[in-house]
Write a structure and sequence with these properties.
Blueprint lengths: L3 H16 L12 E8 L10 E4 L5 H10 L6 E5 L3 E5 L17 E2 L2 E5 L5 E6 L10 E9 L11 E4 L7 H11 L4 E5 L4 E5 L9 E2 L8 E3 L6 E3 L5 E8 L5
The structure holds 2-acetamido-2-deoxy-beta-D-glucopyranose (NAG) (5 copies).
Length: 243
């Protein structure tokens, strides 16, 4: 006969059994995982670290956040179930831990592990050719349809996890690849990069037509304009060095 205590033990055993077999994370943007589980410490394994605590943490979300947050941010790490760390370099060669110590589910994706207490899963960006000394400026709002794309071909397209900053992600995604023109398309859900930028026959339209979709920014709670259906919201970079 079951009593509620026995039932609780059985449910906990089932949950533990499920959680002990995490699904490998999806690793976007050509990043890779040099350290599946390593030791972190109070002064942090990353240099110039920036930590975000989130109740919706996922591995791809953390990588995309770090990728978008600066040209020189080349490391991302998830830890303690709800922390995303972005850094420029490793502060020291990490001590590897057994992957069984990275046993905390991600707060936004319970089937994937996101480190553990002082245990971090470390991801690294690919070596990319882009120029770090740039600033992005608005290039305008353009009509963009499958038959009349605003950008010259070839166009590299990329989508990102929802709830992150598509405009900055897209600018940094293109910059990392050495591409000078970035645009947000399909009502703010798709990023496009084009080396030569706008096609000679692209039609410019008023900015208001790129206010139909609003996207989050890197600053929680804030929104920015993000294009519209059949509208491309364009940014381009200059080699202006602010330093
Ligand atoms: C690695 O472990 C050794 C021995 O415990 C310790 O002295 C060292 O500081 C650790 N290094 C890192 C980067 O965690
Ligand atoms: C970027 O600017 C820094 C500082 O002015 C300079 O040392 C570096 O060579 C520049 N890099 C490129 C790729 O232009
Ligand atoms: C520019 O647009 C024209 C007309 O849509 C098209 O025929 C041409 O292929 C485009 N050029 C590039 C490089 O995409
Ligand atoms: C575009 O996105 C906005 C909000 O970001 C939404 O209100 C609108 O319905 C979307 N339009 C289409 C055609 O998907
Ligand atoms: C950390 O990231 C937040 C949001 O992405 C940003 O506002 C802040 O300036 C960053 N801090 C550092 C030290 O990079």
């Amino acid at each position: 006969m079951f009593n509620s205590f026995l039932l609780t033990i059985i449910i906990v055993a089932i949950i533990r059994g499920v959680l002990s077999q995490f699904v490998p994370p999806w690793i976007p943007l050509g990043w890779w995982e040099p350290f599946p589980c390593a030791v972190d410490f109070p002064s942090r394994i990353f240099r110039n670290v920036n930590t975000t605590v989130s109740s919706t943490l996922t591995v791809p979300g953390c990588i995309e956040l770090c990728d978008a947050s600066g040209y020189n941010i080349r490391y991302a790490g998830v830890e303690n179930g709800n922390e995303c760390h972005c850094g420029t370099d490793l502060a020291a060669a990490p001590n590897a831990s057994d992957v069984s110590e990275c046993d905390m589910p991600c707060s936004g994706d319970f089937v994937t592990s996101c480190g553990g207490p002082w245990r971090i899963q470390i991801y690294q960006s690919p070596e990319l050719p882009g120029n770090p000394n740039t600033s992005w400026v608005v290039g305008g709002c353009y009509v963009d349809t499958p038959d009349t794309p605003a950008f010259d071909r070839p166009i590299i397209t990329q989508t990102f996890s929802p709830d992150t900053d598509v405009v900055d992600q897209c600018n940094m995604f293109c910059q990392h690849r050495g591409i000078r023109f970035a645009g947000v398309a399909l009502n703010g859900t798709q990023c496009q990069c084009s080396a030569t930028g706008l096609n000679f026959s692209a039609n410019v339209v008023p900015y208001e037509e790129c206010e139909q979709a609003l996207c989050p920014t890197l600053y929680p709670g804030a929104l920015q304009l993000c294009g519209g259906p059949q509208r491309l919201w364009v940014h381009q970079y200059s080699d202006f060095n602010p330093y």
